[in-house]
Design brief:
With 167 residues, the protein is an alpha+beta fold. The chain contains four helices and four strands. It has a four-stranded antiparallel beta sheet. It is elongated and about 95 Å long.
Length: 167
């Protein structure tokens, strides 16, 4: 770069910046048209309020349906993965960080396992048939809890009297 330009370059930049600022101040600034404007609220109609509420209900219904199918999809994959080796976790009791007690069914036998961060310990084998059936029943009920929740919501909706009845 030519040494003469080094002297004039900061002066040219300062002049360009000053020219940009001077025009806005001469007109009155960028907020000049908004200083004395009084806000006027728009009229809210019942139709727009009803449409807004109906859209909220529709979005909520879509979210519930998506959650249902997602839970079915993930639950089915998780249960299939857990039962591929012939085993199934019937019960899990967390005892702390990285520690739990699990009841596991494998090859027709039910085991009580202690699970820690680095080890799995066999605590005992459950041989009582009533206790095993009770654990299996609780496991079946826990796998279907989302559909039970949806059914309870639909039962509640049926109990609510309709607002718009034809007379």
């Amino acid at each position: 770069m030519n040494p003469n330009w080094k002297i004039f370059l900061p002066v040219i930049i300062a002049l360009l910046l000053n020219l940009g600022c001077g025009t806005a101040e001469a007109v009155g600034g960028y907020l000049s048209g908004y200083e004395e404007v009084e806000p006027k609220p728009t009229a809210v109609s019942w139709w727009s309020t009803l449409a807004y509420l109906l859209s909220l209900v529709a979005v909520f219904a879509v979210v519930v349906v998506m959650a249902y199918f997602t839970a079915k999809f993930i639950g089915g994959r998780f249960n299939a993965r857990m039962s591929t080796g012939g085993g199934k976790v019937l019960e899990n009791l967390p005892l702390g960080p990285n520690r739990s007690v699990c009841v596991v069914e494998m090859a027709g036998r039910v085991f009580l396992l202690g699970v820690a961060e680095g080890s799995i310990t066999l605590l005992s084998e459950i041989t009582d048939n009533d206790a095993i059936e009770n654990l299996r029943e609780k496991n079946r009920a826990a796998n279907d809890i989302f559909s039970q929740d949806i059914n309870s919501i639909s039962d509640l909706i049926q109990k609510i009297p309709p607002i718009f009845k034809k007379k």
